[in-house]
């Protein structure tokens, strides 16, 4: 199989799809090549721009519970001072030096990128709510609180700051044992009481039995979610919840996060209509949450409506003439595969997505580009230099990635642009820890949008 | 070289050359001889021999990180549902149990027998785990190892 287009994007996670849709919106012919799903499909649904951290950075969840102020200009300034290689640093005018000025240069660029992708996702049936200026707490399946900037509607409706006084009921499903409702409701009520939210109301836990559920052997969350995409199943589920809650004081329902995969919003609205309660899903802090899968599938739908071709293939090699990439080679579903383009975007993610591997040292998998940490290629250092003994310390191994300048062109081992027609986007870029820094999807949206714009502009030039 | 060391080397040399010379001759394996005794000893544990190809495929088969994305794509759980009639199937169970022991594969028979080989699980797998190959492998091995 042979593909030709103006731009080829390698990788179909949040970053790659954002880049592809952006380039397509500028009139370019774009192809996305993807071997499988990556990190985007296992994420917990929180879309962090400047989120919470366990480490040395801005706010921990603990600080916020104690009433610390969330102040993005200050937080961004600290972030790029402490992580000078963070991709956000490529989007601010640093010479201005003040917190306000840094934020003023960042905010409009971020807003353009975020509203582009959020708008496309909403049209594909996956709506997010929130703001880069604020951070809101949402219950997790453990009954803890997780703060984030943007979240899909089903999570955002659980913003506890907006809860009115009244009854909170955690509703689980018989046979799905990844959501222990009694445990979660006890934890959350204790947490809110400690925080002084005396008006948090009453907490209760309930379990519904699905008439069509498996009686023995349990069900995976994915199985139930897929069943609920079916209107008849949805109806009988909602009826089961209704009868379980009869006579119960329920203003807020925290439902097992399995309301559907492709049409969970419909289940949510039907539940709200019939129970009169405000319904949310908790965040599941560990993979694999259905939230990530929904996001990935919505991205795929958005990509299709944008007229971008998606090819399933594993890119394994390339041809270049000097510093210009001509062609990618790989293995597709039906044999060998080649893709020609004038510009390429590398959005292959990190270890989980497949962009980086760590076997006899870390390397980038498609172009064998050097991986940087702290301004130097990691190959120059012994492997243990990238690991710290203490779990909560910053882990260089998880911050390492490609290095690029403002044009998002990755550099070679000497610090010069590696290929004139290659841009990189998303988590393959180094300088941040995507699990600990609370900036994961923000980086994807911003760098994806920018890489798409740059590649499209290059093609024109 | 002292005498003890010399005798040790001589002993090893005798068996080394004896073994390799012996291999040039036509097989003299007696039924009930060493190899059969050896295999007999392990039969109760259901340990089986692997071919070199099977052994070469092991590292790939062990690449599952249990992310669970395959569970949501497996056609056997797709609506219109058949949850009540079927035992749970989870491609991840196949991949994870692979990292357990071959003698226990028979416990997965109910799962692998129902696999239709559509390959949707492999299409989404981030770590390129060869799930279909594993299903065939488990199917083969578990036929030999199932308890009577
Ligand atoms: C468990 C987990 C939880 C997270 N939670 C959060 C969170 O709460 N909030 C937040 O903001 N961020 C979170 N993140 C971070 C965020 O999910 C990632 O930063 C983001 O998904 C990365 O997107 P990406 O497009 O860069 O990479 P990925 O989504 O990993 O996509 C990489 C793509 O490249 C493809 N690919 C790789 N190599 C090749 C090749 N050779 N040929 C063809 N295709 C290839 C892959 O198949 C895949 O499609 C989390 C990450 C993880 C892993």
Helices and strands, with pairings:
The complex is a heterodimer of chains A (461) and B (148).
Chain A: E1 2-10, H1 14-25, E2 30-34, H2 61-65, H3 72-82, H4 99-123, E3 128-130, E4 136-139, E5 145-148, E6 150-152, H5 153-156, E7 168-173, H6 181-194, E8 203-208, H7 221-228, H8 231-244, E9 252-255, H9 264-275, E10 278-280, H10 290-305, E11 309-321, E12 324-332, E13 335-346, E14 356-358, E15 362-364, E16 372-373, E17 376-377, H11 396-399, E18 422-424, H12 440-460
Helix pairs in contact in A: 1-10, 1-12, 3-4, 4-12, 8-9
Chain B: H1 3-24, H2 34-43, H3 52-61, H4 91-98, H5 109-112, H6 120-124, H7 131-145
Helix pairs in contact in B: 4-7
The complex binds flavin-adenine dinucleotide (FAD).
Flavin-adenine dinucleotide is lined by residues 10-16, 33-40, 42-44, 46-48, 287, 314-315, 347-349, 352-355, 365-366, 426-427, 434-435, 440-441, 444 of chain A.
Description of the molecule:
The complex is a heterodimer of chains A (461) and B (148). Chain A has twelve helices and 18 strands. Chain A has 461 residues and is α/β, with parallel strands linked by helices. In chain A, helix 3 (72-82) packs across helix 4 and helix 8 (231-244) runs parallel beside helix 9 (264-275). Chain B has a single domain, classed as Fumarate Reductase Iron-sulfur Protein, Chain B, domain 2 (Orthogonal Bundle). Helix content of chain B is 50%, strand content 0%. Chains A and B meet through helix 7 of A and loops of B. Flavin-adenine dinucleotide binds next to helix 1, strand 2, strand 11 and helix 12 of chain A.
What's the architecture of chain B, going by CATH? Orthogonal Bundle
Write down how many β-strands of chain A occur, each being a DSSP E stretch of 2 or more residues. Answer: 18
The CATH fourth-level homologous superfamily of the largest domain in chain A: FAD/NAD(P)-binding domain
Output the radius of gyration of chain A: 23 Å
